[in-house]
Design goal:
This protein has 312 residues and is of the alpha/beta class. It has a single domain (20-311), classed as Arginase, Chain A (3-Layer(aba) Sandwich). Helices cover 30% and strands 20% of the residues. Helix 3 runs parallel beside helix 4, helix 4 (126-137) packs parallel to helix 5 and helix 9 runs parallel beside helix 10 (291-311). The radius of gyration is 18 Å and the shape is globular. 50% of the residues are buried. Bound molecules: manganese (II) ion (2 copies). One manganese (II) ion binds at residues 147-149, 237, 239, 251, 281.
Length: 312
């Protein structure tokens, strides 16, 4: 099996069956290094539904994806065997069953020592993915959380599990190490000052848009904390971007980053052991000209390049 994207010079990019980056679609047991899969679940959103449609839309947008990173100077597909392993089974009307299925799907890949990138879905799908990773690595993992929101909020409508509480559960369940966790792109308004208490209690490093923009950007990038060789996960909520750059999302917040700023942050991350990651909260129904899906594809590409860096 050749784990290379279908050539756009052989089959035009608007043709052929849509898979992530035009890669082969294979079963989870095949011999690849990184599996990309969709998690088409949005049963835990608090505002606009529709993220369930992101995996198929991101596959389509990724037809324009290419492998060579100009700044890094290598092609991700020369270093890693990457495959589209389809969509994770979910139950659209049952949250509990869905989380069990997501965890079991990730287990299959992790048992074979594979890495993965998941395309959500709402942000709550990150929680079962982290549960699988905690089991595989037998310790809380490093966690880089790109988001406008803290997602450490309390229960809503009497329900503990929703897309705004996954990060709190991840910390409380010991899935991620708070001292090896950053939340980046955070901005207000918040419901109240209390929303900041959780991060304070666990000493989680919160990097706001103000922190990113108030001084020299290059100096900021240099000061990003190092995760070294520690197994680390990146969760990319597309609403870290300003709605001008990512209109297609469930809970947009103005005053966000540009797509270019997000790219620069990815390239400055000191992460040598990216074990898995996700892109979540893309909502195609609110998107225009695929702006948001394309930004999601780019985040996937930057994460693949971080993974390739270890074996390059
Ligand atoms: Mn989020
Ligand atoms: Mn968010």
């Amino acid at each position: 099996m050749q784990y290379k994207p279908l050539s756009g010079r052989e089959f035009p990019r608007f043709s052929a069956i849509k898979t992530f980056f035009r890669l082969p679609h294979v079963g989870t047991q095949e011999k690849f290094d990184v599996g990309i899969f969709g998690v088409p679940y949005d049963g835990a959103v608090s505002y606009r539904p529709g993220a369930r449609f992101a995996p198929s839309k991101v596959r389509e947008a990724s037809s324009l994806g290419r492998g060579f990173h100009m700044e890094r100077g290598y092609s991700v597909f020369d270093h890693l065997k990457v495959a589209d392993v389809g969509d994770c089974p979910i139950v659209p009307i049952d949250q509990h069953q869905t989380y069990e299925k997501i965890e079991a799907f990730a287990d299959q890949l992790l048992k074979k020592k594979k890495r993965f990138l998941a395309v959500g879905g709402d942000h709550s799908v990150t929680l079962p993915l982290l549960r699988a990773l905690k089991k595989a690595h037998k310790k809380p993992i490093g966690f880089i959380h790109f988001d406008a929101h803290l997602d450490t909020y309390p229960a809503a409508w009497g329900c503990e599990y929703h897309h705004g509480s996954f990060a709190r559960h991840a910390v409380e369940e010991g899935l991620v190490a708070p001292e090896k966790m950053i939340q980046i792109g955070i901005r207000g308004p918040l419901a109240s000052k209390d929303d900041l208490e959780f991060a304070k209690k666990y000493k989680i490093k919160v990097i706001t848009v103000e922190d990113i923009r108030k001084g020299n950007f290059e100096a900021f990038l240099k000061k990003l904390p190092s995760f070294g060789d520690y197994p680390t996960y990146i969760s990319y909520d597309v609403d870290i971007l300003d709605p001008a750059y990512a209109p297609g999302t469930g809970s947009p917040v103005v005053g966000g980053l540009t797509t270019y700023e997000a790219q620069r942050i990815f390239r400055a991350l000191k992460v040598k052991n990216l074990v898995a990651g996700d892109v979540v909260e893309i909502n195609p129904a609110y998107d225009h000209s695929d702006i948001t899906s394309l930004a999601g594809v780019d985040a996937l590409f930057e994460m693949l390049c971080l993974m390739a860096q270890k074996s390059s």
